[in-house]
Task: structure prediction
Amino acid sequence: MMAVPGLYFDGRTSRAHRVQLSVEAGVAQLSGDIARSCPLAELHVSEPAQHVARKVTFPDEAYFEVQDGAAFDALLQETGYRDSSVVRMQRSVRGILFGVAATVAVLVLGYLYLLPFAADTIARHLPAGVERTISKGTLEFLDKHVLAPSRLPATQQNAIAEQFRMLRPPQDGAPPYEIIFRSSRIGPNAFALPSGQIVLTDELVKLMDNDDEVMSVLAHELGHLHERHLMRRLVQSSAVGAVVTLLFGDVSAVIANIPTVLLDMRYSRDAERDADDYAIAMMKANGIPLSRMADAFEQLKSKKGDADMPYLSTHPTTTERISHIRQAQ
Result:
């Protein structure tokens, strides 16, 4: 009968007892300083690990620590014991490669599908107070480092805001908004903050040939607000902070990332197409020619080119989008 040397610990004290482990008729038996027996089915064998002795744990948390690994492996084989499938995979090159491939697949699928779904769910359930806090902190940062007070006459600002207010949204449930005018150190730009502020720069207003072109840009930003694209993007770029926000109401982690995200925003093609389609529907609903919207993007594109325009850097594939707008006429 094969016997494996080792140490026995009773689980209550640190004293080690020198014993030998053997198996007979499906029962594990200890002999030496301590005599004990237990059915194999009630024992737990630890997984093998480099430089760590394997253990056999009894139901009362006492355990046997193996001192001769080779003899123990032979005993396990003799009794018909098999390590778990995970352990067997870890010992197999094919299993390791499969595990790596499965891990990569899970990460890729999680990034492509699970993270966007989770971001959308979180964004739609964040309290309004969180969005207000985020927007307030973001605008304060931008006013300090990027934006400056608008130089447009108050009458012009009011006229633009009133003209857009008179337009009918293309869908029910349009979010409340406020148009805020600023001059900008980074040129023509427009963007929407989570709580409903649409920031419109003097430079963009001056670049447009007419107010209808300005309306198309505002309609596009309202589309982003309606679909909560910014909050979804922020959640995806600050996933851990967003979870903390949802659970504990601590918005600091998200706020810290917003200015950077806004200045280097890359909406997905789907988000841009959704916002464009929203603006197209809004222009049609109010009898404004879609050529004005296409002309607005042509103005932005021709100014310096897609690569140099701050507004266009946040809204990629301009040529495709212009073509899409013109086809919708």
